[in-house]
Specification:
357 residues, alpha/beta, Rossmann fold, twelve-stranded mixed sheet, 11 helices, 32% helix
Length: 357
């Protein structure tokens, strides 16, 4: 049995989890990024802001590491891109990152498992291109090439607890900046994906999260790779947002695999169960997705199902669609749940198979 489990772990990590690591990215290569403290952005540049806890050596071409410093610090960068070239400009703090800017549509983005600095940057770039928002990326190390896949996963689970105080520190710095500069943001939302939600869970459970007032217009927990059991206890303590959404897909291939690895612990983004958090609205994608995990982001999913992108576009600016539209949504008020529905696909005889993960 132990031998079978080991074989399963190898298969799962190589074919499921790490398929996310390699798919859909732009040009993840250090030759496409440079560090330039004197760079002056052009009118055609798009900017992404990074808050990273990785080790950094500005004298090296590969200036961002796969781990944290022993004394963890948050390092800020504005990263400008045009096409598939990025220029990384170190900044002292958020004030320098947003100096002189007003009415910014921003989304704070926290990624999950399998991310190096470059692949995190690629994902942030993809997010920026899909939704047109200024991405503020909290970047934490979740993949180390020198480690085997299983060790990478276990270390990420452990590090999510260790690094949660620094995530909470970042949230506090963002809160203070927003309060001191009320004209900077037209809207600011938070989207935490997959294992990224472990940072929030630990920050709340360990009482690191000191912000108790509204910071975000919305907080979206997508495909949460956190234990479903007793989630109500810590989710209801989160009050940094006006609206909180928890998405789920019970055929999510990545989360079904994570459930097996974690000892058959059901994952929140797979199949939420009672008791539900009273401050959250649960968005159920079971009827419109197959095995997809990154359904908020990947072009293959959003092209085939544009109504999913339309939904996230609204949620990311603190708005909601008409959930009374019976051609698109099924309301389940006893479960705090809205179930997405595609009448046209249903009339054709079911959903199409998902390509994107």
């Amino acid at each position: 049995m132990k031998h079978f489990y080991s074989i399963f772990l190898i298969f799962f990590f190589s074919t499921v989890v790490f398929s996310q690591h390699n798919a859909y990215f732009f040009k993840s290569d250090w030759k496409n990024i440079e560090l330039d403290k004197t760079y002056i952005p052009t009118a055609s540049d798009t900017c992404i802001t990074f808050a990273s806890v990785r080790s950094c050596d500005e004298t090296e071409k590969i200036f961002m590491g796969y781990d944290c410093d022993k004394n963890v610090t948050i390092k800020y960068f504005n990263i400008y891109f045009s096409g598939d070239k990025w220029v990384c400009v170190p900044k002292k703090d958020l004030e320098e990152c947003f100096s002189g800017e007003t009415d910014v549509r921003a989304t704070t983005f926290v990624e999950g498992f399998g991310r190096t600095f470059l692949t995190a940057l690629d994902r942030a770039t993809m997010f920026s291109r899909q939704y047109g928002h200024r991405i503020i990326m909290f970047d934490w190390p979740t993949y180390r090439p020198n480690l085997k896949n299983g060790k990478n996963y276990r270390l990420t689970v452990k590090e999510s607890s260790t690094l949660s105080p620094y995530f909470a520190q970042f949230i506090n710095e963002l809160y203070l900046y927003k309060n001191d500069h009320p004209n900077t943001f037209k809207s600011i939302s938070l989207l935490m994906h997959s294992m990224g939600n472990l940072l929030m869970m630990h920050a709340v459970k360990q009482d690191h999260l000191k912000v108790k007032d509204t910071l975000f217009c919305s907080y979206i927990m997508t495909s949460s790779c956190v234990p479903q059991k007793n989630h109500k206890e810590w989710v209801e303590k989160i009050n940094i947002q006006k609206k909180l959404y928890i998405t789920s897909n019970n055929r999510d291939r990545t989360l079904n695999g994570a459930k097996l690895i974690s000892g058959f612990k059901r994952q929140l983004g797979e199949r939420p169960k009672k008791p539900f958090a009273s401050n959250a609205l649960y968005l159920n994608f079971n009827l419109v997705l197959d095995r997809e995990h990154n359904y908020f982001l990947y072009p293959s999913v959003l092209r085939r199902k544009p109504y999913i992108k339309d939904l996230f576009k609204l949620l990311l600016i603190g708005q909601e669609p008409d959930f009374n539209d019976e051609n698109r949504y099924i309301k389940k008020p006893k479960h705090n749940t809205i179930e997405l529905f595609d009448l046209e696909e249903a009339q054709k005889g079911g959903i199409s198979l998902g390509v994107g993960m």
